[in-house]
Amino acid sequence: MSVYFPQKFLPYLLLLPQLAVTAIFFLWPAGQAVEQAFYQEDAFGLSRDFVGLDNFTELFTSPEYFASLKTTMVFSFSVAFLGLAVALWLAVMADRVIRGAMVYQTLLIWPYAVAPALAGVLWWILFDPSMGPVALLLESIGIDWNHFINGDQAMILVVISATWKQISYNFLFFLAGLQAIPRSLIEAAAIDGAGPTKRFWDIVFPLLSPTTFFLLVVNLVYAFFETFGVIDATTQGGPGQSTTTMVYKVFNDGFVGLDLGSSAAQSVVLMVIVGLMTVVQFRYIERKVQY
Amino acid sequence: MIENRPWLTGFSHLILVLGVLVVALPVWVAIVASTHPANAFGVGHIPMWFGDQAFANWHQMLIGKEGQASHMLRMTLNSLIMALGITFGKIAISLLSAYAIVFFRFPFRGLAFWVIFFTLMLPVEVRIVPTYEVIANLNLLNSYTGLTLPLIASATATFLFRQCFMSIPGELVEAARIDGAGPIRFFFDILLPMSRTNIAALFVILFIYGWNQYLWPLIVTTDDAYYTLVMSVKRMLSVPDGDIEWNKVMVSTLLAMIPPVLVVIGMQKLFVKGLVDAEK
C-alpha cells in the first residue's frame, strides 16, 4: 500500500472513539492503579497516606501472596498441559479417521461458547459431594470427595472445569496443524517401516511444535486471566486459600478485603506479567511470519 | 490414508466417541436436572434420566409464578444488549481506527498504534478495582453504557482489520480517487463490502466474548434490572449450603449457554475463521 488519502484532519477523527475509550477505561485506571499502589488507604476511603514501596515489600514478604503465586502456577500449567494433551490426542484420532472428522469437530468445539462461570457450575453438579454422580462413583471406590473441604480436590475441580472449556480451542488448532503436514512425509516413513506411534513421535510431533508452543502461550494466558468465572462460581478461592489465584486475589483483596493499596500493587505486578507474556507472544508470532 | 489398519481406525472412532461423550456429560446432567422438581435432588441422589417437570420448570423460570413475574426474560434481553453492544462497538471503533492507520499518513500515527496495542496488556481482570472506580466516578454503574463501553476497546480487532486492509492493493485507492470518491465514500462503498467476511467472522467471536462476560456485570450492576444471565447463575448459587434449587439453576445455566452455543454450531465456518484470524 503506497497510496494514501491526503486529508489531514479526518484520521484523527477516525481514531478518536478508540483512543477515547482506551484513555478513559484503560490508561486512566492503569495509572490510578500505579498511583494507588504507593498509598495506604483506610477502609472507608476517608484518608490515605503515601507509603512508598511499602505495599510492594509487604506483598513480596507475605506468605499468602507466594501461596497465590504457587496456586496460579499449579493451576495454569495443569490447565495448559491437560488441555493440550487431551486435545492433541483427540485431534490425532480425528485426523486419522476419514469419515466423520467434521462431525467430531462440531461435537467437540461447542464448549468454547460456554462461559467459564457456567462451566464451573456444570462440573460442580457432577462433583457435588452429596449428590454428584462422579463424587458418588469416587466414593464407591474409596475416595472421599469433598471439594468444599479438601483444597487439592477443589483445585482438581477448577482445573477440570477450565480445561473442559479450552479443549475445543486446542483441538481446532491441532487438527488444522495436523492437516497441514504433507502426507508424503508420513507415507515415506510408513514405507520405511515406521509404525503409527513412531511416526507420531518422530515426525508429526516435532512438526507440530510451532502450533504446540503457540497454544501453550495462549492456554497460559487463558488460565491466568480468563478463568476468574470458574473459580468465583465454584470455590471462591477456597477452601482456605487453596484456589486463590493471583487474579482472584486482586479482586478479593480489593472488593472483599477493601485493602486497596495492596490490591493496586498486585494489579501493577499482574500488568508487568501480562506485558511480558504479550512480548513473548509477539516475538513468537513475528518468527512465525518468517516461516 | 497411509495404510489400512482397520483396528486402529476403529480405536480412533472409539476414543473420539468417548471424548464427545465426556465433553457432553455435564450438559446431559444439566438438561436432565432441569426436568425434575426441586425435591428430586438430595443426599446420594441425582436424577440421570428425564423427569416430567421440564415444562413446569422452564415455564416458571421464563414466565414466573402466578402474581410474580420472572426476571429471566429481562436478563436475557440485558445479555443480548450487552453482547451486541460490545460486538458492534468493538467492530465499529476498530474499523475506523484501522482505516485511519492504514489509509492515512499523519503525525503521531505510530503513537496511536502503540496506545491501542497497550490495551492488549491490560485485561479488565487485572485492573478491576481502579476501573470500577472510574465507572463509579462517571456515574455509569447500573447502566447499559457502563456494561458495554469499557469493554469495547480492542487491540485484537484493530490488528485484524489493519492486516486485512493492508492486503488491499493501492491501485484500488487510486482508481477510487480518480473516479472522484473521497475517503468516506471509499470506506462505505469499497472497504466495508470487501471486509464483510472478516467482519462476520469477528462478529461470531466477539458475540461469544460479550455474552459470556461475568466479572464486569457482577461488579457494575447492583440493580436487578441490569443483571445478565451469566452472572445471575452465581447469585442463585449464593444461598446457604443445601438450599440450592438445582433444577432452577440448571434452567438458568442452559438458557445462558444456549445462544452462544447455537452461534458456534450454526456459524461453524465463520467461527473457525474468526478464531484463527484473531490469533494471527
UniProtKB/TrEMBL annotation, chain A:
InterPro entries on file: MetI-like, MetI-like_sf, UgpAE/MalFG_permease
BP-aspect Gene Ontology terms: transmembrane transport
Record-annotated ABC transmembrane type-1 domain positions: 69-281
Membrane topology: Multi-pass membrane protein
Record key words, sorted: Cell inner membrane, Cell membrane, Membrane, Transmembrane, Transmembrane helix, Transport
Organism superkingdom: Bacteria
Cellular location(s): Cell inner membrane; Cell membrane
Family classification: Belongs to the binding-protein-dependent transport system permease family. UgpAE subfamily.
Subunit structure: The complex is composed of two ATP-binding proteins (UgpC), two transmembrane proteins (UgpA and UgpE) and a solute-binding protein (UgpB).
Identification of the protein by name: sn-glycerol-3-phosphate transport system permease protein UgpA
Native species: Marinomonas piezotolerans
Lineage: Bacteria, Pseudomonadati, Pseudomonadota, Gammaproteobacteria, Oceanospirillales
Automatic annotation (TrEMBL), chain B:
SUPFAM superfamilies, alphabetized: MetI-like
ABC transmembrane type-1 domain boundaries: 76-267
Record organism: Marinomonas piezotolerans
Transmembrane segments: 7-31, 80-104, 111-132, 144-165, 186-211, 249-272
Membrane topology of this protein: Multi-pass membrane protein
The protein's assembly and partners: The complex is composed of two ATP-binding proteins (UgpC), two transmembrane proteins (UgpA and UgpE) and a solute-binding protein (UgpB).
UniProt keyword Kinase, yes or no: no
Protein name: sn-glycerol-3-phosphate transport system permease protein UgpE
Key words, A-Z: Cell inner membrane, Cell membrane, Membrane, Transmembrane, Transmembrane helix, Transport
Pfam families per record: BPD_transp_1
Cell compartments where the protein resides: Cell inner membrane; Cell membrane
Listed GO biological process terms: transmembrane transport
Organism lineage string: Bacteria, Pseudomonadati, Pseudomonadota, Gammaproteobacteria, Oceanospirillales
Function: Part of the ABC transporter complex UgpBAEC involved in sn-glycerol-3-phosphate (G3P) import. Probably responsible for the translocation of the substrate across the membrane.
Predominant place of localization: membrane
Entry GO CC: plasma membrane
Family: Belongs to the binding-protein-dependent transport system permease family.
